[in-house]
Amino acid sequence: MNEALKAFDISADPDAIVIGSTRSAGSGEAIIVRSPIDGKTVATIKSATAGDVAKAIASAESAFKKWRASPAPRRGEFVRRLGEKLRQRKSQLA
What we know:
It is flat and about 45 Å long. Helices cover 50% and strands 20% of the residues. It is built from four helices and four strands; from the N terminus they run αββββααα. With 94 residues, it is an alpha+beta fold.
């Protein structure tokens, strides 16, 4: 997974949560992620708190209002370019 994130210039930080464009350390419980193949620990990540979730919802609502106000052709062009980038990286994402 880290390789796929690196392909999009996203750094893997198991303790970070992202709300809008802000990264911060998660302050909730630690969650152990295990491989479904052999049960070995893959990572330990921090979860978000209820307050973090409320902030994320408020941020998403604000972003949606801006997105909705953008002209449809502009939104369509953005989605087309995103799909193009995903197709270029499909082997890394698979």
